[in-house]
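Predict the 3D structure for this chain.
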Amino acid sequence: MGQDHQHGHDHDHHHGRQDAATADWADPSVPDSELSPGGLDRRRFLQRAGLLGAAVLAGGTASAGPAAAQTADAAGRVPEVDDPRRQYGWFAGDHHIHTRFSPDAIYLVQQQAEKAVEFGLDWMVITDHGGPTHQKLSIDPTAAEIEAARATNDILIYQGVEWNIPAGEHATVFVAPGAGSVEVLKSFEGAYDGAILAADGAIARPTENSPAAEEYAYRGLRYLAEQVAAGNAPDAVMLPNHVSRRGLDSPHELRGYRDSAPGIAIGMEGAPGHQAASIPEAAGGLGDDRGFYGNTPNPDSFPGYPVESYFTYGGFDYNVAKVGGLYDALLAEGKRWCITATSDAHFVHEETFARGGTPEQQTSAYWQTTGAYLPPVDTGVPSPAGDFWPGYYSTTLVGAASRDYLAIMEGLRASRTYAVHGGLVRGVDLRIATLGRSGSYGSTVGGRAQVGRGGNVFVSIAVDLANSPNFNGDVPRLAKVDLIAGPITGAPVDLDRQEAPGTSVIESFEVSRLDRRRGRAVFRYVFRNVRESFFLRLRGTDGNQVDQFGNPTIDVSGDDDPWADLWFYSSGAFVEVV
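Done. Predicted structure below.
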């Protein structure tokens, strides 16, 4: 990739929306998968009327070059292609939250919803642990609590489950509200949860490392796609959680999830919850590992993962934090795979709640017979714990056309996401433009820009800097933003490949004093004479804990203040040479 760069400030950035008027729907060289929903509707209408040739429809999900668009799943769903003429609203959320319907948690749905609203979230997902008891006793009462919380809180609340992936880790699975959605969730869990399969003797244990166990996971994802296709649920998505914590999700399994149901398995938790776990005991914390990582391989772990992958780096999963690592290897295939940041809230640090009821009613044995603990009681005595409330520290920003259930899910599917810790930034807007190919805004994160061979690609990064205290009382100071890029090489021969050769930090942009006074920094970079398709992504840091190359350092077990080491990461975007 030939390249040059420019660095400057932009005071003419647009914040409104612009209509996506385009004639791409009439161009036979543009496949269906590259059209906006409106453009696809127009093409279909004209084809039915006999006004467009069948050659256009034959475009299907094809694409030129190695940066191929993702194919449809069994539900006929493909990620929405970014419209370069469109601005999106950015909505903060958290897809990994527990309640008293988990055997290791405590709170009411209402409490989690109230706190999520208090700390600025627009959407949230209730994800209690799957298993035999949860499937039989917890799903329906959870649905009732969610309905009640929706009525009294200004936030989108999805119902989900933390799936025990057969042969793998945990994953968020959630559905859009609909008449049959709760039944879909219940039937999915009953047939494909690893703990239930193990209890039934179908597999030896939930994490059994075998091809037969893996196949249950792929079948479960295809089942969700089929249920969406049949109209039994409006939508469903899956995102693996804390991927590197125990090394259970091998690279080929992550690829298998994605390729079994591309519209359902759409990304992964790039930064785990439990970010308070590493607060030192001397500061009133647990003194554990950040994210409750810090493990060693077990018999079901993928043997190809290095020992350093079992730790977090600046609070983020190793596979995301490592430049040229597994996340970049997935992007190098030219396929979307979003990343997120979550709370995984079970017990919140310095909160005063305890389980209600008698000592016997506070035990896991009681939970096993009822599927829920009694409502918690306020003791007035704060206790150390590993978690923060939803939105208090970890935030996933999703670019969506509107603040509604299906739009948020489509934004996740399209990889329009930023994972942010500690309020490091208020917002980020990545734009990619190629002359003659894009409109006034350019493609954004998750998007797919096209350029003629030898052309130039213009990248603009606008960052709204923090200008008020975060929930720790600090005003975070973004120090730099890194632009990471690497070539798109297509599907690997080795499905356990976890490297992306040629990937590097292309440029580091420092935030100036003038940027801070303005509250906004805009950086520009030009890839010149582009000869090959490539992907790119962003990361930013307060610069407090970086190595000599500007990368995050490994988090220190038992002594790592999460507020003193803040990062944000974007999902990937793509440039395709045509």
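The longest helix spans residues 132-152.
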